[in-house]
Amino acid sequence: MRKFLVSTVLLAALAPASAASPEVPETIAAPGEVLVMTLHAQGAQIYECKADTSGKLGWRFREPVAALLDQSGRSVGRHYAGPNWELNDGSAIVGRIAGRAAGATANDITLLKLDVTSRRGTGGLATVTTIQRLNTRGGAAEGPCGTEGAFLSVPYAADYAFHERPR
């Protein structure tokens, strides 16, 4: 029994998180859409130290920089400012935030729903209409920033679920 339990726990820890999780908050749900693929992102959220309208310095989000990995851990593309997702097959999409939900902890960036606003190529992302950022870990800026123009790179991981409207 103990050997079975240990094996089950190890398998659960190693298994990729499911993008079709029933715990997806309503604010980022994609009702009626079909899941095309889910990719894991591993990278950093980049912040810049900037003053707000009152002159107080704080970390402001600048851009993501991440590798997109398939279930075997092989790099299949990248995620970067725009926000853009680009696959090695030449297909690419740009998204615009359509919904947000809190991450699991204060250290985790928000979960997102994004609508695709433009696309190029005929590969895996060609028919995608909606992107969900799920299962975020890390990425939230912490601490003071004392020098305007300074940058902060915060490691993060997330799963991106790519959906299309049924045909």
UniProtKB/TrEMBL annotation:
Pfam families in the cross-refs: DUF3455
Signal peptide: 1-19
Keyword terms, alphabetized: Signal
Database matches in InterPro entries: DUF3455
Superkingdom of this protein's organism: Bacteria
Name of the molecule in the record: DUF3455 domain-containing protein
Species of origin: Bradyrhizobium sediminis
Organism lineage string: Bacteria, Pseudomonadati, Pseudomonadota, Alphaproteobacteria, Hyphomicrobiales
